[in-house]
Amino acid sequence: MAKLWDKGTNSHTEATQLIENFTVGKDRELDVWLAPFDVLGSVAHIRMLESIGLLDTTELTQLVVALADIYQAAQSGNFIIEAGIEDVHSQVEMMLTQKLGDVGKKIHSGRSRNDQVLLDLKLYMRHEIKEVVQLTTALFEQLMQLSDQHKNTLLPGYTHLQVAMPSSFGLWFGAYAESLTDDLLLLQAVYRIANQNPLGSAAGYGSSFPLDRQMTTDLLGFERLNYNVVYAQMGRGKVEKNVAFALGAIGGSLAKMAMDVCLYMNQNFGFITFPDHLTTGSSIMPHKKNPDVFELIRAKGNKLQALSNEILMITANLPSGYHRDLQLIKENFLPAFADLKACLQIATYMFQHIQIKEDILKSEKYKYLFSVEEVNKQVLAGTPFREAYKNVGLAIDAGNFDPDQSIAHTHIGSIGNPGNQQVQQKMQHIVQSFDFASVTQALDRLWEL
Ligand code: ARG
């Protein structure tokens, strides 16, 4: 099958096939993920071409109608990249040319697959980040609800994994909720980096056509342009790396949370449990209730944290300009969003069913959690801190430390006053500032001629 770049002079068919298999790699499967976005980019590009006189109105209309069909197919999972076609960009152009003849061959004026794939990736990231934000918000809400509900249920706090000070389920759930707020703050920064239009940079050096790059920026609802065409192309790999880092931040919160869950479910802790049908059994040990869901969240969360490093290694020593190396980033980057979304969904579901043990601190082994409480009580009664510390330490050594287990933590962020309302407000503000609505509005208008 002819390539977009085939000039019809090649007679080395066997060698060509060998090279094609190696260079195309997994692109035929992976580029299907980009297909709807490739079509959206093409609609914006041809509308702009018409505005500068490189297509006439009839041609534009024909192309938009045909692209709408392809978009439909891509949306409903009926878009394939045929054997012998290199990538999504070639497939779409081939389909248009088969349907419309020479008009199909006109759409590539003033662009290159280099800015096309970059654009597709950015539109894909924007779309996926929106879903990640929605699912992160749902998990956040679930955690906040649990934090409020179990505000007064105490839990041992650990340092060095040794019993340290009283904590609470309110603080524990709320901590992971607040962690997600910072992760979304980071995600917002990279979203805004991604939300800049590279189209018109073509192969990486612009075009001699008078392209109206602001027009495609507005049509696609980008916040602004990547102005400098060389920088626009340099964004390939850099944007994915930054976005991967932010996805990894959410992955990190999930992985740490999952580790806590596995630990707290362990019989020696026994702080939490889940209904039997949400745990997994063993093929040999009949008593087993294993936390496989959280083990996999932990592993996937850690794997997500590795992704930005992988991209860093692929791109670290590349000079400016396009390089085929960049194609490989898609292999782990595109599926990462689905992995993260699955983790967020299952974590939310599991937390809807979590069971909490009450009265954990009644056990003798946790009495030393109250040592600082005891010291503080003496301080409030007038003893200097270091002296009170010594008194309590000596009582512990002598085996006659018998603390009063009432606690009164009142400052902001502490057991009695975790600041959940403030955390809610912070999250609300972050989510609102993503401004997904202006993207939706632009994309709704994109098809209106
Ligand atoms: N599949 C390629 C990629 O992902 C598309 C761009 C190809 N450009 C090129 N000059 N070979 O990078």
TrEMBL record:
Residue ranges constituting the Fumarate lyase N-terminal domain according to the UniProt record: 17-301
GO cellular component: cytosol
Entry EC no(s): 4.3.2.1
Record's catalysed reaction(s): 2-(N(omega)-L-arginino)succinate = fumarate + L-arginine
GO biological process, one term: L-arginine biosynthetic process via ornithine
Domain of life: Bacteria
Swiss-Prot/TrEMBL keywords: Amino-acid biosynthesis, Arginine biosynthesis, Cytoplasm, Lyase
Pathway per the UniProt entry: Amino-acid biosynthesis; L-arginine biosynthesis; L-arginine from L-ornithine and carbamoyl phosphate: step 3/3
Primary site of residence: cytoplasm
HAMAP family: Arg_succ_lyase
PANTHER family with a match to the protein in the record: ARGININOSUCCINATE LYASE
Name of the molecule in the record: Argininosuccinate lyase
Organism name: Microscilla marina ATCC 23134
Chain's gene name: argH
